[in-house]
Amino acid sequence: MKFLITGGAGFIGSALVRFLINETEHSVVNFDKLTYAGNLDTLNSVSDSERYSFIQGDICDDALVRKTLAAEAPDKIMHLAAESHVDRSVDSPGEFIQTNIVGTFTLLNAALDYWEREKPAEFLFHHVSTDEVYGSLSMEAPSFTETTPYDPNSPYSASKASSDHLVRAWGETYGLPYVITNCSNNYGYFQFPEKLVPLMILNAMNEQPLPVYGDGMNVRDWLYVDDHARALYLVATSGKEGETYNIGGNSEKTNIDVVKTICSLLETYNPPKKDQRYEDLITYVTDRPGHDFRYSVDTSKIQSELGWEPEESFESGIAKTIEWYLENQSWCESVQEGQTERARLGLSRNKSG
Length: 353
Ligand code: NAD
Hints:
Strand content: 15-25%
Low-confidence stretches: none
Number of helices: 11
Helix content: 40-55%
Distance between the termini: 40 Å
Shape: globular
Number of strands: 12
Bound molecules: nicotinamide-adenine-dinucleotide
Radius of gyration: 20 Å
Strand order of the largest sheet: 3-2-1-4-5-6-10
């Protein structure tokens, strides 16, 4: 089969493309705009494959999306392209509305016309989304299931919730075969160093402060990115049309625990130069506005229906991740080149959008 992956040069998209090329016989067309978060070096290990091709493009570009679908005739569309960083959505929500909502709408319309015209037998539009659409939980609340009502709080999660609703509507109203997955926080190699895990690793290595939001007690569920890629492939090929699947690592941690685990592993892998401990670099900073307290994902549906469960524990996955960042500092420097230094993302709303 041929898979069209949007956002295939991003963190999760590139893990999925590598999985498809390395672990399956399928072909991949990677459609990516290459924003600050997209980087083709993530695909160096597979880009020579004759089953891989790349198109630089914007999912909001209706003509190019239609031309690509007509020329490539994919069997599956796996839609990962998005603006993905919550802090950036606080500063500049307009880009999130444009890509995550208008872009998904553009892609859906083009996909519907393509599917009605060509009717590929195995066709599926797979929308890759987040557990953040379900909102915030207390410590005592049960985990999110696929029937938990949507209750998004950030511009990012609201834009992803909107796009989930559009996908469902295109399925229910126009009959487009679709599936949606809602996943918890991913971590692993090739993650742009603005997200919690790589930011903390790189700051610690450079003996810079480790900024922890609020009191550090917010809870996230953590999933190693390769486990997510495997789950996405299973859902795209064996999931039931019109269904939602939650994906998570069964690994809830407070943010401060994540940071302390990174610090203690780094003491072994990269002992600090000065007579200090990495933990001494932890600095509590002003909380993120509207910071959701806890996310927790019930993964029993994907486990029982598709037999998926994560292979990495947080402990094994984070150790691999730290080793990778220690060995790939040049990649981190190259993707950060040209980024204007900013004291702190997520505190200053850009009033023009
Ligand atoms: P990312 O920010 O690392 O990558 C996004 C990719 O999309 C980049 O390659 C970028 O160039 C591309 N892109 C952005 N706008 C585009 C546009 N208009 N047209 C075409 N391409 C565009 O994101 P990620 O962390 O890999 O997340 C991928 C998907 O998974 C997103 O939809 C995100 O909402 C979802 N998700 C992420 C996480 C997580 O923890 N990172 C968790 C659950 C779900």
